[in-house]
Amino acid sequence: MPRFAANLSFMFQELPFLDRFSAAAAAGFRAVEFMFPYEHPPETVAARLTAAGLENVLFNLPPGDWAAGDRGIACVPGREEEFRRGVATALPYARALGTPRVHAMAGLIPAGVARSACHAVYLANLRYAAQQLAAAGLTLVIEPINTRDIPGYFLNTQAEAAEICAGIGLPNLKMQMDCYHIQVTEGDIATKLRKYASLCEHIQIAGVPERNEPDTGEVNYSYLFRLLDEIGYPGWIGCEYRPKGKTVDGLGWFKPWSTTRAATP
What we know:
The chain is 35% helix and 14% strand. The chain is an alpha/beta fold and 265 residues long. The protein has one domain (3-216, 227-244): TIM Barrel, CATH 3.20.20. An eight-stranded parallel beta barrel has the order 1-2-3-4-5-6-7-8, surrounded by five helices. Mean pLDDT is 96; it is low at 261-265.
């Protein structure tokens, strides 16, 4: 049976971030994920998480200067020390929130820099981060992202991610497979979920092509949810989509799995 985590960076945006935890719980979610918790002290975020009775299943390492256009810095030459500081920043949040996994965004290939140079920096940074996180009992995940949404992003395909994980060879470095990005870049989602099941630590969903609710667009998520049960996927499914309107108005797709379903007449 699939387990869904509300992505609080995308959903419930009609509310301030700290108020989204209770809103997600009221909507029937048992877990949440989000991109970056760093605007608030870890104790403050943890208090909201605990009060709502939720688990936090994922957040991202610091991405660099998001407002200036950074989309992660793991592949960017010359910013290795900044990346390492980001790992150190994330660890207290993971401890406070009980988060078992964090995502390192690869980043954009800088103009005039060879891809091979970015690749070498990326591998070194991932190895460092995975080793640091392993000491805290955490898993590091990497996620291929389509270049329509983020032009110039370094990591784009599931095969690339799998090769990197295999090449580094650390047991706590895994793949985050976002069905939206897979469909935009590659298609054939079901085959890829089967192929990389042993490396897949986390899954995310959204409708394609608009990135709205998963019951909109061209992807048959009912089929994919059955497939995940069939292949024995044990993890969470992050709902990283942009609601068309108010978040709760678009949760019809979620009703069969909501923790509030028993109270529904």
